[in-house]
User: Fold these one by one.
Assistant:
Number 1:
Amino acid sequence: MANSTLLKSSIARKVAMALSGLFLILFLAQHFFINSTSVFSANTFNAISHFMGNNPLVQYVIQPILIIGVIFHFCMGFILDFKNRSSRPINYAKYNGAANASWASRNMIISGSVVLAFLGLHFYDFWIPEMVYKYVEVNPLIENRYFEELQHKFVDLPRTIIYCISFLLLSLHLWHGFNSSFQSVGFNNKFSKSLHKLGYAFAIVVPFGFIFIALFHHFNH
Protein backbone atom coordinates (compact mmCIF):
# COMPACT_ATOMS: atom_id res chain seq x y z
CA MET A 1 0.00 0.00 0.00
CA ALA A 2 2.81 2.38 0.90
CA ASN A 3 4.59 1.68 -2.41
CA SER A 4 1.34 2.20 -4.28
CA THR A 5 0.76 5.55 -2.56
CA LEU A 6 4.34 6.61 -3.27
CA LEU A 7 3.97 5.63 -6.94
CA LYS A 8 0.73 7.55 -7.30
CA SER A 9 2.17 10.64 -5.63
CA SER A 10 5.26 10.42 -7.84
CA ILE A 11 3.12 10.13 -10.97
CA ALA A 12 0.93 12.99 -9.77
CA ARG A 13 3.98 15.20 -9.30
CA LYS A 14 5.27 14.35 -12.79
CA VAL A 15 1.88 15.09 -14.34
CA ALA A 16 1.66 18.37 -12.43
CA MET A 17 5.18 19.18 -13.63
CA ALA A 18 4.24 18.39 -17.22
CA LEU A 19 1.02 20.38 -17.20
CA SER A 20 2.64 23.38 -15.53
CA GLY A 21 5.26 23.28 -18.29
CA LEU A 22 2.51 24.36 -20.66
CA PHE A 23 2.36 27.65 -18.74
CA LEU A 24 6.05 28.18 -19.48
CA ILE A 25 5.44 27.44 -23.17
CA LEU A 26 2.50 29.85 -23.34
CA PHE A 27 4.47 32.49 -21.43
CA LEU A 28 7.38 32.19 -23.88
CA ALA A 29 5.17 32.11 -26.97
CA GLN A 30 3.31 35.24 -25.89
CA HIS A 31 6.49 37.18 -25.15
CA PHE A 32 8.23 35.98 -28.29
CA PHE A 33 5.35 37.10 -30.50
CA ILE A 34 5.23 40.54 -28.91
CA ASN A 35 9.00 41.07 -28.85
CA SER A 36 9.43 39.88 -32.45
CA THR A 37 7.31 42.78 -33.65
CA SER A 38 9.97 45.17 -32.28
CA VAL A 39 12.31 44.02 -35.05
CA PHE A 40 9.89 45.03 -37.80
CA SER A 41 7.95 47.98 -36.43
CA ALA A 42 8.45 50.14 -33.34
CA ASN A 43 4.89 51.44 -33.66
CA THR A 44 3.39 47.93 -33.73
CA PHE A 45 5.48 46.89 -30.74
CA ASN A 46 4.42 50.00 -28.83
CA ALA A 47 0.75 49.45 -29.66
CA ILE A 48 0.73 45.79 -28.59
CA SER A 49 2.78 46.46 -25.45
CA HIS A 50 0.49 49.32 -24.44
CA PHE A 51 -2.59 47.15 -24.96
CA MET A 52 -1.14 44.21 -23.02
CA GLY A 53 0.11 46.47 -20.25
CA ASN A 54 -3.19 48.24 -19.70
CA ASN A 55 -5.78 45.56 -20.42
CA PRO A 56 -7.43 44.49 -17.12
CA LEU A 57 -8.01 40.92 -18.33
CA VAL A 58 -4.34 40.52 -19.23
CA GLN A 59 -2.97 42.32 -16.17
CA TYR A 60 -5.17 40.88 -13.45
CA VAL A 61 -6.16 37.44 -14.81
CA ILE A 62 -3.98 36.02 -17.60
CA GLN A 63 -0.61 37.39 -16.48
CA PRO A 64 -0.89 36.27 -12.81
CA ILE A 65 -2.02 32.78 -13.90
CA LEU A 66 0.93 32.45 -16.29
CA ILE A 67 3.43 33.72 -13.71
CA ILE A 68 2.09 31.42 -10.97
CA GLY A 69 2.14 28.50 -13.41
CA VAL A 70 5.76 29.17 -14.38
CA ILE A 71 6.87 29.46 -10.74
CA PHE A 72 4.97 26.27 -9.89
CA HIS A 73 6.68 24.47 -12.78
CA PHE A 74 10.16 25.24 -11.51
CA CYS A 75 9.24 24.53 -7.88
CA MET A 76 7.96 21.09 -8.92
CA GLY A 77 11.19 20.55 -10.84
CA PHE A 78 13.27 21.12 -7.71
CA ILE A 79 10.96 18.87 -5.68
CA LEU A 80 11.13 16.04 -8.22
CA ASP A 81 14.91 16.30 -8.46
CA PHE A 82 15.24 16.17 -4.66
CA LYS A 83 12.85 13.21 -4.43
CA ASN A 84 14.72 11.33 -7.16
CA ARG A 85 18.09 11.88 -5.51
CA SER A 86 16.90 11.03 -2.00
CA SER A 87 15.15 7.83 -3.16
CA ARG A 88 18.36 6.30 -4.54
CA PRO A 89 20.00 3.73 -2.24
CA ILE A 90 23.48 4.50 -0.96
CA ASN A 91 25.03 1.65 -2.92
CA TYR A 92 23.33 2.74 -6.14
CA ALA A 93 25.16 1.33 -9.14
CA LYS A 94 27.26 3.75 -11.06
CA TYR A 95 25.21 5.33 -13.82
CA ASN A 96 26.81 6.24 -17.10
CA GLY A 97 24.43 9.04 -18.00
CA ALA A 98 26.19 10.04 -21.20
CA ALA A 99 25.65 6.55 -22.60
CA ASN A 100 21.96 6.44 -21.77
CA ALA A 101 20.59 9.95 -22.05
CA SER A 102 21.34 13.32 -23.59
CA TRP A 103 23.00 16.15 -21.66
CA ALA A 104 19.75 18.10 -21.72
CA SER A 105 17.75 15.29 -20.11
CA ARG A 106 20.44 14.62 -17.46
CA ASN A 107 20.79 18.28 -16.49
CA MET A 108 17.26 19.62 -16.57
CA ILE A 109 17.70 20.93 -13.03
CA ILE A 110 20.77 22.93 -14.09
CA SER A 111 19.21 24.45 -17.20
CA GLY A 112 15.98 25.01 -15.26
CA SER A 113 17.84 26.83 -12.48
CA VAL A 114 19.53 29.13 -14.99
CA VAL A 115 16.23 29.76 -16.79
CA LEU A 116 14.56 30.57 -13.45
CA ALA A 117 17.37 33.00 -12.58
CA PHE A 118 17.00 34.53 -16.03
CA LEU A 119 13.26 34.99 -15.51
CA GLY A 120 14.09 36.75 -12.26
CA LEU A 121 16.40 39.09 -14.18
CA HIS A 122 13.72 39.58 -16.81
CA PHE A 123 11.15 40.58 -14.18
CA TYR A 124 13.71 42.90 -12.60
CA ASP A 125 14.43 44.51 -15.98
CA PHE A 126 10.90 44.86 -17.32
CA TRP A 127 8.05 43.86 -15.00
CA ILE A 128 9.15 45.63 -11.79
CA PRO A 129 9.98 48.94 -13.54
CA GLU A 130 6.59 48.75 -15.28
CA MET A 131 4.78 48.25 -11.94
CA VAL A 132 6.74 51.12 -10.39
CA TYR A 133 6.05 53.36 -13.38
CA LYS A 134 2.29 52.77 -13.33
CA TYR A 135 1.36 52.10 -9.72
CA VAL A 136 4.07 53.67 -7.53
CA GLU A 137 5.10 56.77 -9.43
CA VAL A 138 1.70 56.94 -11.20
CA ASN A 139 3.17 58.35 -14.39
CA PRO A 140 1.06 59.18 -17.45
CA LEU A 141 0.41 56.29 -19.85
CA ILE A 142 2.69 57.16 -22.76
CA GLU A 143 1.93 54.77 -25.62
CA ASN A 144 5.23 55.09 -27.51
CA ARG A 145 7.68 54.55 -24.62
CA TYR A 146 8.00 50.73 -24.79
CA PHE A 147 10.29 50.38 -27.80
CA GLU A 148 12.86 52.81 -26.42
CA GLU A 149 12.78 51.06 -23.04
CA LEU A 150 13.34 47.68 -24.73
CA GLN A 151 16.30 48.89 -26.74
CA HIS A 152 17.84 50.53 -23.67
CA LYS A 153 18.01 47.16 -21.90
CA PHE A 154 20.25 45.71 -24.62
CA VAL A 155 22.73 48.56 -24.89
CA ASP A 156 24.94 46.95 -22.23
CA LEU A 157 27.02 44.14 -23.79
CA PRO A 158 27.44 41.96 -20.64
CA ARG A 159 23.69 42.02 -20.02
CA THR A 160 23.05 41.07 -23.66
CA ILE A 161 25.49 38.16 -23.36
CA ILE A 162 23.75 36.95 -20.19
CA TYR A 163 20.43 37.00 -22.02
CA CYS A 164 21.86 35.05 -24.97
CA ILE A 165 23.46 32.37 -22.76
CA SER A 166 20.20 32.03 -20.83
CA PHE A 167 18.29 31.52 -24.06
CA LEU A 168 20.72 28.80 -25.14
CA LEU A 169 20.07 26.90 -21.91
CA LEU A 170 16.36 27.57 -22.33
CA SER A 171 16.60 25.86 -25.73
CA LEU A 172 18.18 22.78 -24.14
CA HIS A 173 15.56 22.78 -21.39
CA LEU A 174 12.72 22.94 -23.91
CA TRP A 175 14.36 20.36 -26.21
CA HIS A 176 13.90 17.66 -23.60
CA GLY A 177 11.08 19.13 -21.54
CA PHE A 178 8.53 19.75 -24.27
CA ASN A 179 8.29 16.15 -25.40
CA SER A 180 8.79 14.54 -21.98
CA SER A 181 5.82 16.57 -20.74
CA PHE A 182 3.49 14.83 -23.18
CA GLN A 183 4.99 11.45 -22.32
CA SER A 184 4.34 12.12 -18.63
CA VAL A 185 0.63 12.69 -19.24
CA GLY A 186 0.40 9.55 -21.39
CA PHE A 187 0.00 11.26 -24.76
CA ASN A 188 1.03 8.54 -27.20
CA ASN A 189 -0.88 8.17 -30.44
CA LYS A 190 -0.56 8.73 -34.18
CA PHE A 191 0.04 12.46 -33.61
CA SER A 192 3.00 11.88 -31.27
CA LYS A 193 5.71 12.09 -33.96
CA SER A 194 4.30 15.32 -35.35
CA LEU A 195 4.05 16.72 -31.84
CA HIS A 196 7.67 15.78 -31.14
CA LYS A 197 8.76 17.62 -34.28
CA LEU A 198 6.73 20.64 -33.18
CA GLY A 199 8.42 20.50 -29.79
CA TYR A 200 11.88 20.42 -31.30
CA ALA A 201 10.99 23.29 -33.64
CA PHE A 202 9.69 25.35 -30.70
CA ALA A 203 12.87 24.62 -28.72
CA ILE A 204 14.95 26.02 -31.57
CA VAL A 205 12.88 28.84 -33.07
CA VAL A 206 11.74 30.59 -29.90
CA PRO A 207 15.00 30.72 -27.88
CA PHE A 208 17.15 31.53 -30.92
CA GLY A 209 14.52 34.05 -31.97
CA PHE A 210 14.96 35.76 -28.61
CA ILE A 211 18.73 35.74 -29.13
CA PHE A 212 18.28 37.41 -32.52
CA ILE A 213 16.01 40.06 -30.98
CA ALA A 214 18.53 40.82 -28.22
CA LEU A 215 21.45 41.10 -30.66
CA PHE A 216 19.37 43.12 -33.11
CA HIS A 217 18.62 45.78 -30.52
CA HIS A 218 22.16 45.74 -29.17
CA PHE A 219 23.66 46.53 -32.56
CA ASN A 220 20.88 48.87 -33.71
CA HIS A 221 20.19 51.00 -30.66
Note: Residues 71 and 175 are 19 Å apart (CA to CA).
Number 2:
Amino acid sequence: MTDASRLQAKRPVSASLAGPYGHPFHPILVTVPIGAWVTSLVFDLASHLVHRPGFLTQGSEWLIAVGVIGALLAALVGFLDLFAIPARTPAFRTALVHMTLNLLVTAAYALNFLWRYSTYTDGGSVGIGRLVLSAVSVAALGVSGFLGGKLAYRYGVRVADENSQAEGFTPDRSPRSARSTV
Protein backbone atom coordinates (compact mmCIF):
# COMPACT_ATOMS: atom_id res chain seq x y z
CA MET A 1 0.00 0.00 0.00
CA THR A 2 1.39 3.38 -0.94
CA ASP A 3 1.67 6.34 1.42
CA ALA A 4 -0.96 8.14 -0.66
CA SER A 5 -3.40 5.25 -0.18
CA ARG A 6 -2.77 5.20 3.55
CA LEU A 7 -3.30 8.94 3.83
CA GLN A 8 -6.50 8.68 1.74
CA ALA A 9 -8.05 6.39 4.39
CA LYS A 10 -7.26 8.96 7.09
CA ARG A 11 -9.05 11.85 5.40
CA PRO A 12 -12.85 12.23 5.50
CA VAL A 13 -14.82 12.02 2.26
CA SER A 14 -17.02 14.80 3.63
CA ALA A 15 -15.81 16.51 6.81
CA SER A 16 -19.21 18.10 7.39
CA LEU A 17 -20.95 14.69 7.35
CA ALA A 18 -18.29 12.21 8.48
CA GLY A 19 -16.43 14.41 10.94
CA PRO A 20 -13.28 16.50 10.67
CA TYR A 21 -9.82 15.09 10.10
CA GLY A 22 -8.69 13.06 13.12
CA HIS A 23 -12.11 13.15 14.79
CA PRO A 24 -14.62 10.98 12.86
CA PHE A 25 -18.28 10.85 13.89
CA HIS A 26 -18.76 7.09 13.33
CA PRO A 27 -17.05 5.96 16.58
CA ILE A 28 -19.13 8.46 18.54
CA LEU A 29 -22.41 7.37 16.97
CA VAL A 30 -21.86 3.62 17.43
CA THR A 31 -22.03 4.07 21.20
CA VAL A 32 -25.81 4.59 20.91
CA PRO A 33 -26.74 1.19 19.43
CA ILE A 34 -24.07 -0.67 21.40
CA GLY A 35 -25.26 0.79 24.69
CA ALA A 36 -28.94 0.40 23.87
CA TRP A 37 -28.66 -3.20 22.68
CA VAL A 38 -26.42 -4.42 25.49
CA THR A 39 -28.76 -2.80 28.02
CA SER A 40 -31.79 -4.35 26.31
CA LEU A 41 -30.18 -7.78 26.75
CA VAL A 42 -29.62 -7.04 30.45
CA PHE A 43 -33.31 -6.03 30.71
CA ASP A 44 -34.30 -9.25 28.89
CA LEU A 45 -32.36 -11.37 31.37
CA ALA A 46 -33.65 -9.37 34.34
CA SER A 47 -37.23 -9.84 33.14
CA HIS A 48 -36.89 -13.50 34.17
CA LEU A 49 -35.81 -12.57 37.71
CA VAL A 50 -38.54 -10.19 38.89
CA HIS A 51 -42.17 -10.68 39.87
CA ARG A 52 -43.65 -8.06 37.51
CA PRO A 53 -41.35 -7.94 34.46
CA GLY A 54 -43.53 -5.76 32.21
CA PHE A 55 -41.48 -2.61 32.79
CA LEU A 56 -38.27 -4.43 31.81
CA THR A 57 -39.87 -6.01 28.76
CA GLN A 58 -41.22 -2.65 27.63
CA GLY A 59 -37.91 -0.90 28.36
CA SER A 60 -36.00 -3.51 26.38
CA GLU A 61 -38.31 -3.09 23.41
CA TRP A 62 -37.76 0.65 23.28
CA LEU A 63 -34.02 0.30 23.81
CA ILE A 64 -33.98 -1.94 20.75
CA ALA A 65 -35.80 0.75 18.74
CA VAL A 66 -33.36 3.44 19.91
CA GLY A 67 -30.49 1.14 18.93
CA VAL A 68 -31.88 0.56 15.44
CA ILE A 69 -32.25 4.31 14.86
CA GLY A 70 -28.74 4.93 16.22
CA ALA A 71 -27.30 2.13 14.08
CA LEU A 72 -28.82 3.58 10.92
CA LEU A 73 -27.27 6.98 11.68
CA ALA A 74 -23.90 5.36 12.45
CA ALA A 75 -24.14 3.34 9.21
CA LEU A 76 -24.67 6.46 7.11
CA VAL A 77 -21.50 8.01 8.47
CA GLY A 78 -19.70 4.65 8.32
CA PHE A 79 -20.46 4.41 4.59
CA LEU A 80 -18.62 7.70 4.08
CA ASP A 81 -15.62 6.33 5.98
CA LEU A 82 -15.75 3.16 3.84
CA PHE A 83 -15.50 5.23 0.66
CA ALA A 84 -12.21 6.71 1.90
CA ILE A 85 -10.53 3.26 2.10
CA PRO A 86 -8.76 2.16 -1.07
CA ALA A 87 -10.38 -0.91 -2.67
CA ARG A 88 -8.58 -4.26 -2.89
CA THR A 89 -6.78 -3.76 0.43
CA PRO A 90 -6.99 -5.73 3.70
CA ALA A 91 -8.50 -2.64 5.34
CA PHE A 92 -11.25 -2.48 2.70
CA ARG A 93 -12.05 -6.19 3.04
CA THR A 94 -12.17 -5.84 6.83
CA ALA A 95 -14.47 -2.82 6.47
CA LEU A 96 -16.82 -4.78 4.20
CA VAL A 97 -17.12 -7.61 6.75
CA HIS A 98 -17.59 -5.03 9.54
CA MET A 99 -20.35 -3.30 7.55
CA THR A 100 -22.07 -6.57 6.61
CA LEU A 101 -22.14 -7.78 10.22
CA ASN A 102 -23.51 -4.44 11.39
CA LEU A 103 -26.26 -4.45 8.78
CA LEU A 104 -27.21 -8.03 9.70
CA VAL A 105 -27.29 -7.16 13.41
CA THR A 106 -29.40 -4.06 12.71
CA ALA A 107 -31.84 -6.12 10.62
CA ALA A 108 -32.02 -8.76 13.37
CA TYR A 109 -32.84 -6.09 15.94
CA ALA A 110 -35.45 -4.49 13.67
CA LEU A 111 -37.12 -7.89 13.34
CA ASN A 112 -36.78 -8.43 17.09
CA PHE A 113 -38.53 -5.10 17.71
CA LEU A 114 -41.41 -6.02 15.40
CA TRP A 115 -41.70 -9.46 17.02
CA ARG A 116 -41.86 -7.88 20.47
CA TYR A 117 -44.25 -5.14 19.40
CA SER A 118 -46.85 -7.77 18.54
CA THR A 119 -46.94 -8.90 22.22
CA TYR A 120 -46.34 -5.48 23.76
CA THR A 121 -49.23 -5.53 26.25
CA ASP A 122 -48.91 -8.99 27.81
CA GLY A 123 -46.69 -7.75 30.70
CA GLY A 124 -44.74 -11.01 30.90
CA SER A 125 -41.04 -11.69 30.70
CA VAL A 126 -39.23 -11.73 27.37
CA GLY A 127 -39.77 -14.97 25.47
CA ILE A 128 -36.82 -17.31 25.08
CA GLY A 129 -36.73 -16.91 21.28
CA ARG A 130 -36.46 -13.14 21.54
CA LEU A 131 -33.85 -13.46 24.27
CA VAL A 132 -31.73 -15.84 22.17
CA LEU A 133 -32.03 -13.53 19.15
CA SER A 134 -30.80 -10.63 21.28
CA ALA A 135 -27.90 -12.66 22.71
CA VAL A 136 -26.77 -13.86 19.28
CA SER A 137 -27.09 -10.31 17.93
CA VAL A 138 -24.96 -8.88 20.75
CA ALA A 139 -22.34 -11.58 20.12
CA ALA A 140 -22.22 -10.67 16.40
CA LEU A 141 -22.04 -7.00 17.39
CA GLY A 142 -18.98 -7.83 19.52
CA VAL A 143 -17.26 -9.48 16.55
CA SER A 144 -18.08 -6.46 14.40
CA GLY A 145 -16.77 -4.14 17.10
CA PHE A 146 -13.50 -6.08 17.13
CA LEU A 147 -13.22 -5.52 13.37
CA GLY A 148 -14.01 -1.82 13.80
CA GLY A 149 -11.22 -1.59 16.35
CA LYS A 150 -8.89 -3.33 13.90
CA LEU A 151 -9.78 -0.74 11.26
CA ALA A 152 -8.98 2.15 13.57
CA TYR A 153 -6.11 0.85 15.69
CA ARG A 154 -4.30 -1.51 13.34
CA TYR A 155 -4.98 0.03 9.93
CA GLY A 156 -5.40 3.63 11.12
CA VAL A 157 -8.60 4.31 9.18
CA ARG A 158 -9.76 7.87 9.93
CA VAL A 159 -7.01 8.23 12.56
CA ALA A 160 -4.72 11.25 12.34
CA ASP A 161 -1.34 10.59 10.74
CA GLU A 162 1.73 9.93 12.87
CA ASN A 163 3.01 13.51 12.61
CA SER A 164 -0.28 14.87 13.93
CA GLN A 165 -0.29 12.27 16.70
CA ALA A 166 3.26 13.21 17.70
CA GLU A 167 2.05 16.73 18.57
CA GLY A 168 0.33 15.25 21.63
CA PHE A 169 3.62 13.87 22.93
CA THR A 170 5.89 16.85 22.30
CA PRO A 171 6.85 18.43 25.64
CA ASP A 172 5.70 22.00 26.16
CA ARG A 173 8.45 24.56 26.63
CA SER A 174 6.28 27.05 28.48
CA PRO A 175 6.14 27.38 32.29
CA ARG A 176 2.53 26.31 32.02
CA SER A 177 3.63 22.76 31.07
CA ALA A 178 3.97 21.83 34.73
CA ARG A 179 0.20 22.20 35.11
CA SER A 180 -2.35 19.90 33.56
CA THR A 181 -3.92 21.22 30.35
CA VAL A 182 -6.83 18.77 30.39
Note: Residues 29 and 74 are 5 Å apart (CA to CA).
